[in-house]
Structure prediction request, 426 residues.
Amino acid sequence: MNPSTPHHNVIIIGGGQAGLSMSWYLQQAGIDHLVLEKKSLMHSWRTQRWDTFCLVTPNWQCALPGYPYQGDDPHGFMVKDQIIEYLDGFARHVNAPVREGVSVQRVSSRAEGGYRVQTSSGEFTADQVVVASGGYHQPIVPRMAERLPESITQIHSEQYRNPQSLPAGAVLVVGSGQSGAQIAEDLHLAGRKVYLSTGDAPRCARFYRGKDVVDWLADMGYYEMPVEQHPLKEGVRDNTNHYVTGRDGGRDIDLRKFALEGMELFGRLEDFDGTQLRFAENLAANLEHGDSIYNGINASIDKYIAKQGIDAPAGSVYVPVWQPAAERAVLDPVAAGITSIVWCIGFTPDFSWVDLPVFNGRGYPGHVRGVTRQPGLYFLGLPWLHTWGSGRFSGVARDAQFLAGKIAASLLEAEKTDSDAVLSVA
Prediction:
């Protein structure tokens, strides 16, 4: 080891809620560590959310370590400024040993053990590394975007701020997952003409039988279910989030209702032929799929209420308020007055800088509850790392505490091995 190279027991990569949760537990255990953040703490929360963004889960689920929600509206939904205020308070609470503005360029193993972490500010070494940089790195924009007319402004959902920031005219929103549905609603409520290209995203009710669906699911133990017990197993990590909103106190998002109000819905966007956008004729199927998930979740709540003998308001089944008369397969964007496109089709992970053999064919790390096959390398903050809440404010603390225990045990074992080696020599 080069004596001039800074060394730490643990290096945490990423200064968001996951990285700081890890720091909190390592501090409680008295374990030396350093957090490396390429920009600033909680950067993505300040820069990748639109103006009317709010939580889609109730405030009581904000349970970062040592810093649960303490406001006066536990069943409400914090808006963007309140979320940032909460996270800034958490950052002050943790007071992590952090280097901001340091970009990690490569993580590799060292022949003598541990890891080499090469950064924009030089090299560090560590016995163990926790990758807490999330899984939403590269915005997805299809190659067809290159062929669209230059007169159409194109942005990704992470760049969207408000309707006023887009040129006057109609807007095409591509993708009906959580971000796409909420951005389409934001534009629709502002009086903009919206064309929405749907996918097979599921939806759920906001409130059902007297309380928030999240409250019911918590009572039912859904949020405690580990990934290996989920019917889809690890496949659930690829699922699109259910669309619903906490806006204005919380409500359903019903795309059929938007259609009644003038929003034009299409199936999946498949191509642009130089003049016309081409869509799959699967709008009806997409809407029916979303509604079937909606009704299925409510039916599971009905069964729970009946089994527990709970006194609750009567249940119901969603009945579609609108049906597409026909599927539209083509649309001339210029003739339709479309001046903007917002791509809401997600992100891909980019762990290319982690030069270690732990990834599958899609670039996703193989792990069990964040523990990889590479000794001393961990991941934290990924969707369904262990449970539904792993990538959220509600579950990341439990995952961080678990990994902190693994790290402490590993360091203790290493110390014991070193002591035994010294005694054997003596």
The two ends are 23 Å apart (CA to CA). The chain has two domains: 7-137+349-425, 138-343. The chain is about 25% helix and 20% strand.
